[in-house]
Amino acid sequence: MNGFLLKVLLINLNIFCFSPKGNTVSNLIMIIPPIFGAIQSVRDGLEKRYVAAYLALTVVGMGSWCFHMTLKYEMQVYLKVKEPVFHQVMYGMLVFTLVLRSVYIVTWVYPWLRGLGYTSLGIFLLGFLLWNIDNIFCDSLRNFRKKMPPILGVTTQFHAWWHILTGLGSYLHILFSLYTRTLYLRYRPKVKFFFGIWPVIMFEPLRKH
């Protein structure tokens, strides 16, 4: 029985390493947690901007899921529609401004939030780094994985790790933004860990002015 379970595990690891399924399943981190975040935001009566932020992350994850699951051109267009250079430049400026604003907040306004702020940024940038490594050394990594045990091959599936890390980094930055905003609105937010693993924000009643 144990031998059978080991074979099943190895087969599934092999699927994850050498097929698009790993790149599909890795999008779950951008789909499920933000949905719960949006539900919690509605339940707690928070500003609609945060419901929109959570759902926007979910839409990105679902689009990536559909493409990697089907590998159809129609789904690829959803993700890779050609953007004018002007849009790309403005997006880059928006992200740069967002990072600068976040650094300002954790340096001068809420310094005790440096851990959450820098963690979200660091995880996102690590995912971006792995994505670039995968793009540059894709063929070499694929050949390398063929020579490795499946359980080790998972660690070099950098495209899937890119999904996981950028999804987690984006989710954490929404939490960071939500934390700072609710502090300003005189809530008493606290970061809790669901099942001791996944971070969420819980709120105590509003402070009286």
TrEMBL record:
Entry keyword Protein biosynthesis: no
Taxonomy of the source species: Eukaryota, Metazoa, Chordata, Craniata, Vertebrata
One Pfam family in the UniProt entry: Ceramidase
Cofactor(s) named in the record: Zn(2+)
Chain residues that bind Zn(2+): 68, 159, 163
Record function comment: Hydrolyzes the sphingolipid ceramide into sphingosine and free fatty acid.
Pathway: Sphingolipid metabolism; Lipid metabolism; sphingolipid metabolism
An MF annotation (GO) of this entry: metal ion binding
Name of this protein: Alkaline ceramidase
Annotated signal sequence range: 1-24
Enzyme Commission (EC) number: 3.5.1.-
InterPro entries according to UniProt: ACER
Example of a GO cellular component annotation carried by this entry: endoplasmic reticulum membrane
Primary site of residence: membrane
Catalysed reaction equations from the record: an N-acylsphinganine + H2O = sphinganine + a fatty acid; an N-acylsphing-4-enine + H2O = sphing-4-enine + a fatty acid; N-(9Z-octadecenoyl)-sphing-4-enine + H2O = sphing-4-enine + (9Z)-octadecenoate
One GO term of the biological process aspect: phytosphingosine biosynthetic process
